[in-house]
Amino acid sequence: MKNILSACIIGASIIVFGCLLKSGMDHFTDKNRVVTVKGLSEQEVPADLVTWTLSVYETGNDLPALYDKMIATNGKVTAFLKNNGIEQEEISITPPDVDDRISNRYSNEYIPFNYKLTTRISVRSKNVSLVRSIIDRQGELIRQGIALGGYNPISYEYTGFQEMKPKMLEEAIANARESAEQFAKNSGSRIGRIITADQGQFSITESDERPDVKKIRVVSTVKYALKN
User: Fold this and answer.
1) Domain end marker among 126, 157, 188
2) Residue 196 structural domain
3) Cβ distance 68 to 217 under 8 Å?
């Protein structure tokens, strides 16, 4: 009886050890079977902030009189903007930049005036559509005899990015999981837990057709375990 009991104990131990060994091998095998996928989320949104800078200049030989003329010109531009719906707090004006053209010239070429004063009048507004309509009518300033510089930059921004970031991350990760499930199905497996996840970097670029429309994009990288 003792021999039979000992044999049963040994047999049971071998069976348990075999099950544990198989489980360990399966776990080790599954642990090394992974799939890495990328998920994309992309949206186009209208810009909600615009900055438009106008360069205005005056030329002459009498610097004090020229300064007074520049102040009057700035007043005309400001009036034009306010009459078209821009608020005073949305307008900023830089001090005039003085260019002494005769003192700074590099040749003996005749220069009909000594000084050139330039100021930059900026509009920064959340009313993007209004500013765009005024930009299209800036030729009205030229009709008033106001000389505009050749470089009047316009920049558009989207400030609501932080509010939409969580939803876009969720969408990108869901897109990654869908790709992982399809891969697992094709390989006769099923996906397990997430091993690593990288939310990726957000990029904000202009739309191909309209600079006042922003394209927001994020690519998330997720690594899943695969199971039989």
Assistant:
1) 157
2) 34-46+158-228
3) no
pTM: 0.71
- The model's pLDDT over 141-168, given as tens digits with 9 standing for 90+, comes to 999 999 898 888 899 999 988 899 999 9
SS3 211: coil
Neighbouring CB atoms inside 10 A of 63's CB total 12
Q: HSE (CB half, 13 Å, CA atoms) of 36?
A: 6
Predicted local distance difference test score (pLDDT) of residue 227: 84
Q: What is the DSSP string of 62-122?
A: -HHHHHHHHHHHHHHHHHHHHHTT--GGGEEEPPPEEEETTTT-SS----S-SEEEEEEEE
At which residue do the structure tokens 């001090």 appear?
Answer: 95
pLDDT of residue 130 exceeding 80, the answer is yes
Per-residue DSSP letter, 147: P
R_g of the chain computed on alpha carbons? 35
**CATH number, domain with residue 121:** 3.30.70.2970
Residues 165 and 68 in one domain: no
Is residue 226 within 8 Å of residue 184, measured between CB atoms? yes
Whether the per-residue pLDDT at 20 is higher than 80: the answer is no
CA-wise closest residue to 132 among 154, 160, 148: 154
Token reading at 204: 């904000």
